[in-house]
Amino acid sequence: MGQFALRRLLDAIPVLLAVSLLIFAGLRLAPGDPAEMLAGPDPSPATIAAIRETLGLDRGIAVQFALWLRAAASGDLGLSLVNGLPVGELLLDRMGPTLELALAGMAASLALGFAMGLAAGLAPGSATDRTISALASLGLATPKFWTGILLIIVFGLEARLFPVAGRADYADGVGEALRSLFLPAMTLAIANGPIIARFLRNGVVEMSRSDHVRTAMAKGLPRRQVVTGYILRNALVPVVTVSGLILGNLVGGTALVEIVFSWPGLGSLLINAIANRDYSVVQGVMLVVVAGFLATSLLVDILYGFLDPRIRHGRAP
Amino acid sequence: MGNWRGFVLLCGLSIAVATGPAARANELIVSQGVDPIGFDPTRFATGNHVFLHQLYDTLVTLGPDGDPRAALAESWQRSPDGLTVTFRLREARFHTGRAITAEDVVFTIERYQTERVGANLLPRMRSIRQVRAVDPRTVELTLGDLMPGLFDLLGAVFIQNRDAIDTMNRTAAGSGPYVLREWRPGVQFTMERFAQHWRNDQTLLNRIVVRTIPDESAAAAALQTGAVDLLLTTGALAETQLRDRPGIRIERPQASPRSFYLMINTARPPFEKLEIRQAISRAIDRRRIAEIVYRKNGGETCQPWAPGHWAHAPEVERACGFDLAEARRLMERSGIAPFTTTVNTAVDAYSPGSVETAQILKEDLAKIGITLDIKTYDQARARSLLLASDFDMLLHVYTEGGNDPQFILPSGIYGPGGRAKYTAPAYEALVAAAGRTADIAARKDIYRQISLAIAEAAFVMPIVHEFPSIPMKRGIEGFRVDASGFPVLSRITGAR
């Protein structure tokens, strides 16, 4: 397992390099100029040129990339072109809230998905199964920003149970911090829980019909033991796959939820940076997002090994 | 009995002392849709407006009548030829504790004139030929021309501590009534009273917290739940949500409008033809745009300045009103067959309401044989196209409509040879004349002629002047903005 993980980590380096190059080139080839964005409402060409020189954008793309790569290799992701703050610092500031929301959203999605998927899978074709299916479809079809706004109106504005915007610091009180996390996490759960529910439901139904489960039931094992030990464990493999994808997406792809709830995460940082053509910040965020995806993928692969001994011992399932 | 009376008197005095002549409000929490891009006051990004007058001082401020009032400069004198202005500084300190000197003013003005700083005011600052410190409290400006709008300009020049420039983006470098205490990028920043400020006795709030809430519905909800006291940025959705809500009132300061306009590239055929441009101007139903797109928050217009501005001339509004019959006659006279053209619009963050306005324009222009294709761009792309004059027609906005007319006359919008590529000797002469006199009556007449010339030439067509809504908790009073639209928060009462 250790060798496997090390090999995967080494494989990640060329992936990160290739992605960095693609993003670097793509940003500079895209229309829009950060120097123009910073130059005031009525700039002369000389002003724009002076700003470009200050930002180092007057050099060739290859030179800019080489300089960036050399600095990035030593942990320096440069300065924001817009506000001059170190990109590393901006990323660190946003990483905590992003991981907090991603993990909370994942936990809530898993809880919701498990409850729905298991209930539906153990009673296929029943009214419960059909109701859960319909609710899952509704959750999948509803845009996240709409769900978020609805939760704000119902639970924030009308019921006054939760704050409607912003993230409370844990230093200001754990209770307040958790309250501010609740609505955005539920928004993500309503969007992603149904995905997990569907995979789990199908897996449970399939496993329930398998020979080894029928044998276990025939041998008189308690239902709970059959469900947890025989059905669920085998049904979890595809669920782990899709959960890994969801988690990877949550790390960098919750911009809409972040904007609706004023959550200071990487997603909203990325959106603003793209709008302002803040190349340094976009580059830094994408590096983190891709690294997050790769790390999640590795985690998923390791989890497979624990779930399925055949994978762990190198035999085909 | 005497003791009892004395006790009551003592209690009364204690209460009076505790409350003072006016009870000092403590904290104000405001929300805005975007984060500041650092605390450099040379940048007028939307997220920066809120801190400018709070963290920094200017040499002068402008009163409601447009006349300059003493701020860091306690007095000034102008030479007989008007080209030298000498300012006497009052005793004041930066937040670091160091006294403000004439060298800091020199440094600031030269910084605003530095290309690589990219200050918003750079083009207008070029008219200041030289600035020098005569002594530690006296600054002398030598002007290249009369600069009739000098004091308006200086009201937007925020004096910076030359020793704190390196960290200014993060910690500010000012002398204003508030000090920056904390900044959590993307979340909020906090300003606290600067007790050594030269006008501290007039500062009513002790603390101002500015929260970043990008979604306008969420911001409106935050106001309704009391999480914030005032919204600095708001849109149609939030305004609808908050209108007639108990405990909320919506103010509309008349100082600084947003002025929406249509610009035509006269270098692209067939727009070099005056009749075509005039036909377009007559075909635009400005009132419908004002009602539908800008929700009657402003009025339709033909001229660069809103009613209430001293340069506004009521008779100009008759020069370009909606007249479909006249528009069709002008199209016929032009000899140009029906044609297709494009109008550039942009996302609301850059050009609010431009997409909706373009859709109304499309209907209006179809009636005179012009087919309009609407192209919508993101902020960066829209800006590139604007600066390169790469457009047929363009819908955009400016916010200098409350400033001195010299802010926008020699500019890319209305200036001869600007983004619309329009010029004419008579127009050039008028613009030049506007910069050569400081006499207000003469200036009024010149700007009236300029407004008529703009309406006649129709290379830029002002459409609506809108005064943005500022929703706030009922009970909050004293909110105001300066001519540039920058909020002044220190005199607010009724906060928490």
What does this 3D model show about the protein?
- The complex is a heterodimer of chains A (317) and B (496).
- Chain A has helices at 2-29, 34-38, 45-55, 61-73, 87-121, 127-141, 144-158, 174-208, 211-218, 223-252, 255-261, 266-275, 279-307, 309-312.
- With 317 residues, chain A is mainly α.
- Chain A has a single domain (87-312), classed as Orthogonal Bundle (MetI-like fold), CATH 1.10.3720.
- In chain A, helix 5 (87-121) crosses helix 8 (174-208).
- Chain B is α+β, with helices and mostly antiparallel strands and 496 residues long.
- Chain B folds into three domains: 27-35 and 176-253 and 469-488, D-Maltodextrin-Binding Protein, domain 2 (3-Layer(aba) Sandwich); 57-162, Alpha-Beta Complex (Dipeptide-binding Protein, domain 1), CATH 3.90.76; 258-466, Dipeptide-binding Protein, domain 3 (Roll).
- In chain B, strands 14-18-13-17-15-16 form a six-stranded mixed sheet. In chain B, strands 8-9-10-1-11 form a five-stranded mixed sheet, with helices on both faces. In chain B, strands 4-5-7-6 form a four-stranded antiparallel sheet, covered by helices on one side.
- Chain B is globular and about 70 Å long.
- The chains are: A mainly alpha (317), B alpha+beta (496).
- Chains A and B meet through helix 2, helix 3, helix 5, helix 7 and helix 11 of A and helix 7 and helix 13 of B.
